[in-house]
Amino acid sequence: MSREAELRADLVRLGALLYQRGLAHGSAGNLSVRLDDGSLLVTPTNSCLGMLRPDQISRVSPAGKLLDGDPPSKEAFFHLAVYEERPKAGAVVHLHSTYSVALSCLCHDCAEDVLPPLTAYYAMRVGRLPLIDYYRPGDRALAEAVRAQARNHRAMLLANHGPIVSAASLEQAIHAYEELEETAKIFFILGDRPAAPLDARRVAELETAFPS
Ligand SMILES: O=C(CO)COP(=O)(O)O
Ligand SMILES: [Zn+2]
User: Fold this and answer.
1) pTM for this one?
2) How far apart are the first and last CA of the chain?
3) Which atom in ligand 1 lies closest to the alpha carbon of residue 30?
4) DSSP 131-174
5) Is 30 in the pocket of ligand 1 (CB under 6 A)?
6) Which end of the chain is more exposed for a tag (fewer CB within 10 A), N or C?
7) Active-site residues: which are they?
8) Angle formed by the axes of helices 140-150 and 76-85, to 10°?
9) Ligand 1 atom 4: residue of nearest CA
10) What's the structural domain count of the chain?
């Protein structure tokens, strides 16, 4: 099987897994992977991640032009912006999972980082989580706002919308996404009780022991 055929199969298999686990619903969310020639495989617009077909998946050029497959996600431009800013990124995951979206609807005092490092795995897989102002889905201005944060962050949260997470591979991006969703859930379970997130020294120790 070619590398591209393998990646198409991964998008179908892992999209179905996200849907079955309740992390994706309806036709919300989109996934992409970067091919060796710089083009992207991205899920088609208005598609259900639980019911993708390999031949339907869109392939777009680095400039965002459809090369083959169905019309791409309306968010293909923010996927492209993440890849442009993060040369080591091989996959981008954007979903509307419940706890992360709930977090994106709260008022936040400091938009630079909206979820504390409650656990080591959150700090290792996600790190800081900046909040990006609300934009209409598909707005090209959203892609530029994403670009500005992607330079220094592998994950970010779109206000009143949901997270974007990138990593070297699709599996790694999904692992990081799940860590974010579970940590958001823990954040709401803790509620108003005083929590003790990891301090800066412990986070720095993790960054040294497990560089991303
Ligand atoms: O999550 C989405 C918009 O933000 C879904 O859009 P698409 O169906 O165009 O991928
Ligand atoms: Zn979305």
Assistant:
1) 0.98
2) 29
3) 10
4) EEPP--TT-HHHHHHHHHHHTT-SEEEETTTEEEEEESSHHHHH
5) yes
6) N
7) 75, 121
8) 20
9) 137
10) 1
The pLDDT value given to residue 198 = 98
- Report whether residue 58 contacts ligand 1, using a CB cutoff of 6 Å: no
ipTM exceeds 0.90: yes
For atom 1 of ligand 1, the residue with the nearest CA is: 29
Task: State the residue range of the domain holding 53.
Answer: 3-209
How far is the C-alpha of 198 from the C-alpha of 186, rounded, in Å?
14
Give the integer Cα–Cα distance in Å for 166 and 155: 6
Query: In CATH, what number is assigned to the domain containing residue 43?
Result: 3.40.225.10
What is the per-residue pLDDT for 110?
94
> Residue 212 — pLDDT band, cuts 50, 70, 90?
confident
Cα–ligand 1 centroid distance for 172 (angstroms): 21
Q: Cα 180–115–11 angle (5° rounding)?
A: 20
Residue nearest to atom 10 of ligand 1 (CA): 73
CB of 116 within 8 A of CB of 187? yes
- Which helix (H) or strand (E) segment holds residue 93: the answer is strand 91-94
pLDDT tens for residues 88-102?
Answer: 999 999 999 999 999
